[in-house]
Write a structure and sequence with these properties.
The chain is built from 14 helices and 10 strands. It is of the alpha+beta class. The protein has 3 domains: 2-56, Molybdopterin biosynthesis moea protein, domain 2 (Alpha-Beta Complex); 69-276, Hypothetical protein af1432, CATH 1.10.3210.10; 304-357. The structure holds fe (ii) ion (2 copies). Residues 180, 208, 232-233 line the site of one fe (ii) ion.
């Protein structure tokens, strides 16, 4: 038996111990055979480490999707290349600014932080959405800085979808950009450790919300920014940490950041595959996320993601290819797909699902 970080799991590994949340809620029982979907589900629950058995059963039932051609097309587009170039410049500037705040205690300049990071978004005018562009950037940089930048930009798009005012959109973006700043106060070799995490290391990582809160309080920034750092791992059903807060006890901005944060973690590329199909992430959210996240926020988030894929071609789990033509508002992960002359309603075919976008 070995203890691995969630990032190191691959399909075919077998869970050696019950996987529980910090609040003792069962996520996966002992002896579960891991699949790609189950590994993504662990991200949704914020599980950092799992005990697995030494033997691995090569998966047969769930084929590895590899990098879907949809994402390959995005990556070769001029739009993505331009985005990648400006992302690298802004990510560097972002890293320097944050490092100075954490290490040299310089004053945090929120408007400069927003100006620089939003410059990338305002340049995007084409058909590829910011979420799809970011989804592909995760293969290049997996650092805490890149993650914070992504979560900030996802919060920006998300709060536009929520139709919040310009000031609220800016505030939510700043909340996302700074939500994990506490991780930079935890020794880097623990955060970046690819292998086993000891129980002490695990507890240290769990201190990052409080560390971040403390640092931001000292910087005298807006209290929602401090609260988002403190509460982004809290869950509406009380299953989160560090305080086990519920529903209305959690700051609204922290609830928005929580969704953007977990979406970024779930869509990250893994060692055994490229970016995951967004419909599979949405399916896991629908199955497990509605009690954990604020329902009005999560439904708005999922609906807008799904809407961006109408008319997109996809491959179903039985190998057929078709076009997504109608979104089911009661089940966003299960739209109607036209395959040739046939209309396949995924809501009525529970064994079928969208395996990849084409
Ligand atoms: Fe975090
Ligand atoms: Fe995070």
């Amino acid at each position: 038996m070995k203890k691995l970080s969630t990032l190191q799991l691959v399909p075919g590994m077998i869970v050696a111990d019950d996987v529980m949340t910090p609040n003792h809620q069962m996520v996966l029982p002992k002896d579960t055979l891991l699949t790609d979907s189950l590994i993504t589900k662990l991200e949704l629950y914020g599980i950092l480490t799992v005990h697995v058995k030494d033997d691995v059963i090569p998966p047969e039932s769930e084929p590895l999707p590899g990098i879907p051609s949809y994402f390959e097309r995005i990556k070769s587009s001029p739009e993505f290349q331009a985005f990648k170039a400006s992302y690298e410049i802004e990510a560097d500037a972002f890293k320097n600014m944050i490092n100075n705040v954490v290490k040299k205690h310089t004053q945090l300049d929120i408007s400069e932080l927003l100006n620089r990071s939003l410059r990338m978004v305002t340049n995007i005018t084409g058909r590829i959405g910011i979420l799809d562009l970011l989804h592909n950037m995760r293969e290049y940089d997996d650092s805490t800085f890149a993650h914070c930048l992504n979560v900030g930009l996802i919060c920006n798009v998300f709060t536009h979808w929520l139709k919040l005012s310009d000031a609220e959109v800016e505030l939510a973006t700043a909340c996302g950009l700074l939500h994990d700043i506490g991780k930079l106060l935890i020794p880097h070799d623990i955060i970046a450790k690819p292998g086993k995490l000891t129980d002490t290391e695990y507890l240290q990582i769990q201190k990052h919300p409080a560390e971040g809160y403390q640092l931001l309080r000292e910087q005298n920034v807006n209290e929602h920014i401090c609260n988002a750092a403190l509460m982004h791992h809290e869950r509406c059903d009380g299953s989160g940490y560090p305080l086990g807060l519920r529903g209305s006890q959690i700051d609204a901005y922290a609830k928005i950041v929580a969704i953007a944060d977990v979406y970024d973690a779930m869509t990250a590329a893994r060692v055994y595959r490229g970016p995951i199909c967004p419909f599979r992430v949405i399916e896991i959210f629908e199955a497990e996320g509605l009690q954990k996240y604020d329902v009005k926020y999560v439904l708005c988030f999922l609906e807008n993601i799904v809407n961006s894929y109408i008319q997109n071609r996809c491959r179903l789990s039985d190998g057929r290819e078709g076009e997504i033509i109608f979104i089911n508002k009661l089940k966003f992960s299960r739209p109607v797909v036209r395959c040739g002359n046939e209309y396949v309603d995924l809501a009525e075919n529970p064994t079928l699902y969208i395996e990849s976008l084409l």
